[in-house]
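Continuing the batch. This is chain 6 of the set; chains 1 through 5 are on the previous pages. Same settings as before, nothing changed between runs. Recording input and output for traceability.
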Amino acid sequence: MKLIAAYHKGQEIAMISHLDIQRTLQRALRRANLPLLYSNGFNPHPQFSFATAAATGMSSCCEWFEVQLSEEIDPSEFMQRANAVMPQGMSISGAFTAPEQFGSLSAKLRAAEYRVRFQLEAPVLREKLDETLEAMLAGEIIIQKRTKGGIKPVDMRPYILRVSVEQVEGEKAALRVLGKLQADGGLRVDALIDALLARLDAHGSYEIFRSNMYFAEDGLLPHLPAE
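Output for chain 6:
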């Protein structure tokens, strides 16, 4: 059977790489004595796949993955047994059994929503932040992207669906960002925030939290709400 679920990546483990997260998740599920289905060959490994990688430095509550199991198990039991052995900062939610012909998560992926919290070195005015964002979104937003052919200029504006200011209080601010995210690429939120800080001539630190992941509408996974 194929089981679909989401894992949570807390801020305390935000700096762990996706590869290490993958290893940690596999070890936890083995420790929970869950009936994982292994690949054939000289070096068998659990049959896992992820909708997308969780960037190093980003926390999240919606990292969807799929795992093949060698026998039927109730999704609620899967979550209970897995969460009993998860390390601090990780947990599993939203598990369900994938129907026949479900397809892959990565092929269904469409967009993701993020919340960005800033701690700036100097206060910023709400009006200035709103005006700077409006000016950025009105035209191209060029970044230098590393590709197999070298570093190339890329316009990230087409990947941005929506940006809104949630909070501005002195040196603290918060944005909500909705961007395209698909198997062949998507919005790099860190690059967007770096470009915004450069235009504001502001300095400071920020944290990115992925709050939602959206898929092609099929009634089982979260999908973009109608505007």
